[in-house]
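Q: Convert this sequence to structure tokens.
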Amino acid sequence: MKTIMLLVGKTTDKHFQAGISDYVERIGHYMPFDIVTIPDLKNTKSLSEEQQKTMEGDLILKQLQPSDTLVLLDEHGKELRSIELAKWLEQKLQTARRLVFVIGGPYGFSEAVYSRANEKLSLSRLTFSHQMVRLVFTEQIYRACTIIKGEPYHHE
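A:
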């Protein structure tokens, strides 16, 4: 199974870039994991939030294959503890052909993307920048991989 983290817009902060790259490399020891970045929309000042979500949504949907399991990182998603995320991921690794996590743009997702999604996960009730979510989420995927393998990275 292949796992993809699909992002809207580049990660611009060099500290987040470094941390994300480190965790992506670590995750690669456990499973195939790639990051795909959809470029930020240009000339958005004349667009409404809904128009931006629709345009980003179209770009997201173009990246998907019909058999993909699509998981949105969304503030209204299910919150899991790290051990629960590890169990969830382990189950997905056995059943999904391609697992695609999406971190959307600043206004969230279009209705078309929500309709296509298989699940929604939330990292916290707190609000984080999209740049920070990328780092926190890659760390949590790495943590889940070490939990699945019984390695000592995670402590109860």
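The helical segments are 14-27, 49-62, 82-95, 111-116, 130-148.
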